[in-house]
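The step that takes the researchers longest sounds almost clerical: writing a folded protein down as plain text. The outcome of that step, for a single protein, is printed below.
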Amino acid sequence: METTNFAVGAVTTGFSFPQIATYSAASGVVTYSEVMDLARGVSINPQITVANSNNIFYANNAAAERGAPKFSSGNVGLTVDGLLIVAEKRIMGIPGSSKAIVTVGEENFELTNYDDDQSIPYVGLSVVLKQQSKGKTFYRAFIYRKIQFAQFDIPANTEGENIDWQTTALTAAIFRDDTPKHPWKSISDPVATQLEAYNIGRVFLGGEAAQALPT
């Protein structure tokens, strides 16, 4: 997409379609596998710590030099409607063997166990940002290259006269990846459609482009 229209800057107006994929690295090469949709996106809130942000050298009674600011560490808060079951098991590192069966009458029901076999993995995360500049809407793929979700639980409120739309809040630690320059995020140039941005993230995470957005 032509980017000259966005020279004045852009404001973010939306967030959607978080996807994750399992992260692995060997000998400086990073690969992603089994990309999948996480849930329906509600909000994202990164908090970044910058090294050398206050590392200033003073001379002649003034600030003379500053250490080069660079990413040090970070966390990202992610709010979704409710995790897809397969995605929850993936980001929480729950193996297929961690389950129990409850028999009610003649019907069996499966429970997922959070137990000692749980091992939370590193994953890549891609989301779609909707932005606007000079009245024109466009989309960008925003990718955290290596993150690890924290253990979470789901608070809930009883139903009242009106629906209380209750979401799921996730937190993940952000890491630099294991390629030679150790990037921690990537973001695409503007594209015209949400599907294009979704597919940029999907292919980056090792998947194949989709013909349509998930419903």
User: Anything to note?
Assistant: The radius of gyration is 21 Å. The chain has two helices and twelve strands. The CA atoms of residues 10 and 133 lie 5 Å apart.
